[in-house]
Amino acid sequence: MKVLIQGEMSFMPLPDLLQWLEMNRKTGLLTITINGVDRMIYFESGKIVFVSSGEEGHRFGEFLTGLGYLDGGTVAGALAESARSGVCFTQYLISKSYLTADVLTRVLTELAMKILVDSVAAESGTFSFSSHIPRAVRGGPIRLPTGAIILDSLRMMDEGKRRA
Questions:
Q1: Mean pLDDT of successive 10-residue segments in the chain (164 residues)?
Q2: What is the phi-psi region of residue 57: left when phi exceeds 0, alpha when psi lies from -120 to 50, beta otherwise?
Q3: How far is CA 117 from the centre of its chain?
Q4: How far apart are CA 32 and CA 51, in angstroms?
Q5: How far is 140 from 3, CA to CA, in rounded Å?
Q6: The whole model's pTM is what?
């Protein structure tokens, strides 16, 4: 796995980095590390195609389970089977009619925004961007508009500050 860029979030704010990845249509894995916890955002041609986190409940399958879309056993079986067959996890869920592309897009958007809000709100952290995308993510059916996710996340943060 070749690291193409890395740095401190205090030097390059996350929204700026995400916009740069989108504008330059980059493909790869952005890993954000805050307090020893990794948050991963996968890109294909500048679009977010998958997100996950080392934080409990913020892995995509756990998030689906937490929202009541699938039970843990179904998620575990689908993860294993998609990996065994070399099919993207989200594509596998759609092909087996567990969930529709629209539902998966909504859930992935919600998780992406949660991860971004938590990451942007952090006082400090590091990032690295590598050219590696695992087979379980590559070529999936979901393409989230990075710019819209950034704006919605920042709006959500701003609304949260106003309520506090």
A1: 90 92 96 96 95 91 95 95 91 96 96 92 91 84 93 85 67
A2: left
A3: 12
A4: 11
A5: 23
A6: 0.90
Other C-beta atoms closer than 10 Å to the C-beta of 109 total 18
Residue 52 bridge partners (DSSP): 40
Beta strand 47-53 with 37-44 is antiparallel
Q: Show the 3-state SS of 26-71.
A: CCEEEEEEECCEEEEEEEECCEEEEEEECCCCCCHHHHHHHCCCCC
116 φ/ψ angles, rounded to the nearest 5 degrees? -65, -45
CA distances from 46 to 19, 65, 143 (A): 9, 28, 9
Q: Where are the alpha helices (DSSP H) in the chain?
A: 14-23, 60-66, 72-85, 89-95, 101-121, 146-163
In this structure, are strands 126-130 and 3-8 parallel, antiparallel, or unpaired? Answer: antiparallel
User: Distance between CA atoms of 113 and 5, rounded to whole angstroms?
Assistant: 23
The tokens of 119 are what? Answer: 């990451």
Name the β-bridge partners of 39: 32, 53
